[in-house]
Write a sequence for this structure.
């Protein structure tokens, strides 16, 4: 039981202090998991990072699952993941309650009105990131326009039209995956 | 809760407009989380495409408010967004439904993948499928981004456009920490954007 509690509180600390999301949590996880408890080696830590690039889920959850299962099996991964999300649940629910109670009070409304276009910008930023990755396999500008992956662009255009034909989001993503498999196989090009 | 709903803009016509059920919330969130590689701000537009554009469960403005709050709290943005959207849609039970649906896929995937990591990462068919899906996600994301941009531009208000462009430049080109940018935007909003025209 002791180890499960330790995992829970250790990852609760990471969850609580990881402000700004994503890779902001890496140094915190490093400090708790490698330096304080020695649950992981630096190499395993880098592996988690790589796995997180290609599997779904926030890196914090991935790290919690990996570390938890290594230290105490499946109960460990559940304890660590629960620990990681615990501070979020408490704080976000509190903020949600305040939003629905005071969301229309002038100054609060002002703050939210200021943040709304910022959220649009952050989504646009993620859109640009993933577009570069999908078409050019690169993470940053600049790119050579002509070197774009033509099959990727074709799938992109097909998906976009299917989207306009009101195909549901999930069916759409599954079909684009299948299209990727087919097109790359037929063309013999490696993605 | 009604206070906010009354003043938020009328729900636009959703594509399929399905009534809210916990199982529908769980399933759609689970699938989005399972197939979305690339972090919080990729997952969030997909949630928006599903809950707002497809099911018509909340208005666009409200969903953006909720994402702002999710972004401002500690923890992973995707997790926070599912907590707050779940709460909006189905109270505390909704929170745990959405949270479980968000957390389970990475939990399962990572447990499995960590055993077969090499086979998984180097398998060409897995890569082709993932690549295709990445292009699909890009299309959905672009659609969401364009929709939101057009709406902001149509309002013909200078301040939101300045915030939007400024936030983009500061985070993408100047690589300023997102929390610091958000803080500046919040301060601008606090002093200058209380007027109902910005709602």
């Amino acid at each position: 039981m002791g180890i499960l509690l330790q995992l829970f509180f250790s990852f609760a600390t990471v969850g609580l202090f990881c402000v700004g999301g994503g890779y902001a949590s890496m140094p915190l996880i490093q400090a708790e998991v490698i330096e304080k408890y020695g649950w992981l080696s630096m190499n395993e830590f880098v592996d988690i990072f790589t796995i997180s690039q290609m599997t779904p889920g926030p890196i914090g959850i991935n790290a919690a699952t990996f570390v938890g299962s290594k230290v105490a099996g499946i109960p460990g991964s559940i304890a660590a993941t629960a620990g990681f999300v615990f501070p979020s649940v408490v704080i976000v629910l509190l903020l949600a309650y305040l939003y629905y109670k005071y969301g229309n009070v002038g100054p609060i409304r002002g703050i939210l009105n200021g943040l709304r276009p910022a959220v649009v910008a952050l989504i646009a930023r993620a859109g640009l990131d993933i577009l570069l990755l999908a078409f050019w396999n690169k993470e940053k500008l600049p790119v050579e326009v002509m070197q774009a992956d033509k099959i990727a662009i074709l799938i992109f255009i097909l998906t976009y039209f299917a989207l306009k034909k009101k195909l549901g989001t999930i069916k759409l993503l599954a079909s684009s995956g299948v299209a990727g498999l087919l097109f790359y196989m037929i063309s013999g090009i490696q993605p | 809760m009604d206070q906010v709903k009354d003043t938020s803009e009328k729900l636009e016509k959703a594509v399929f407009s399905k009534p809210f059920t916990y199982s529908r919330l769980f399933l759609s969130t689970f699938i989005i989380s399972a197939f979305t590689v690339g972090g919080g701000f990729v997952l969030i537009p997909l949630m928006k495409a599903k809950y707002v554009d497809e099911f018509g469960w909340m208005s666009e403005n409200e969903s953006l408010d909720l994402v702002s709050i999710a972004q401002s709290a500690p923890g992973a943005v995707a997790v926070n967004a599912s907590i707050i959207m779940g709460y909006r849609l189905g109270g505390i039970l909704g929170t745990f439904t959405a949270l479980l649906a968000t957390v389970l896929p990475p939990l399962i995937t990572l447990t499995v993948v960590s055993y077969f990591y090499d086979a998984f990462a180097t398998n060409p068919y897995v890569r082709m499928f993932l690549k295709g899906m990445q292009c699909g996600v890009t299309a959905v994301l672009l659609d969401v981004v364009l929709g939101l941009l057009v709406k902001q531009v149509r309002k013909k208000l200078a301040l939101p456009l300045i915030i939007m462009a400024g936030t983009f430049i500061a985070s993408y080109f100047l690589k300023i920490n997102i929390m610091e940018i958000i803080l500046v935007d919040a301060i601008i909003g606090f002093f200058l954007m209380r007027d109902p025209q910005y709602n």
